[in-house]
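Reopening this one. Same input as before:
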Amino acid sequence: MARSIKTAVFPVAGLGTRFLPATKAMPKEMLTVVDRPVIQLAVDEAREAGIEHFVFVTGRGKAVIEDHFDKQFELEATLKARGKTAELDGLLRDLPKAGQASFTRQQEPLGLGHAVWCARQIVGDEPFALLLPDMVMHASPGCLKQMIDVYERHGGGNVVAVEEVPWEHVNRYGVVGAKDWTDNAFTITGMVEKPKRREDAPSNLIISGRYILQPEIFAEIERQAPGAGGEIQLTDAMIRLMGQQTFHGIQYRGTTYDCGDKVGFLAANVALALDRPDIAPGLRAALKKILAERGGL
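Same output, byte for byte:
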């Protein structure tokens, strides 16, 4: 029987240079999609999937993330005194319970693999989920819930979420090979991190920012030499782990918005706002007016 996935790791130590000057003093993970920080969306997805322990790998200048997931007595008292019950209930609902949030630091920007390795003492000898907050997965059920269903169906192992991209873009990502499809899930036959040539890519299915990993990945990361970009690449460590354990992929049902990119971030704001009954009518009218004034698309 597969061990339950109850812990999720969130790497949040990045500098956010693509969003300067907005991220000069504020973590990129605290940029809001409509009215929810990007990191909160990732935590929402994890909570929906049954995650009970949230591990944040932070860096210098990221203390506001810890504050976001802590109680703020003055704010709560003010909302209560002013009768803003809905706002107060929303804040309390979003908070992890006491002891459910842990924080550790990645002192140097040495890559995703290194960030994951920094969480090893907190995660311990248990399988865990890994969510990259920049990638907002808009789906119902959430991407991680879909992945856990695949994980449980196969009795454990490792699971990676993927999506298709145009072949000319495969050199930007980690790419997987696939066989034995069942519905939208498959066995992963191989991985390549940022293939330099199209013919080096086993498919146009890219790793899209959600993982379920076994704890043996930590030992593989520790042995891993720097790879693409001089960083400790998680994909390289997963390739080594594939020699010992099974990996499955899932082409999850939903839409990914890369909120580490300005266009992706703006698209996420529009898409998620249009799903909100309280915002959608006004936003549609505003968008129509903007497009009309600029001659349409």
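So the earlier flakiness isn't reproducible anymore. For the record, Residues 166 and 197 are 14 Å apart (CA to CA).
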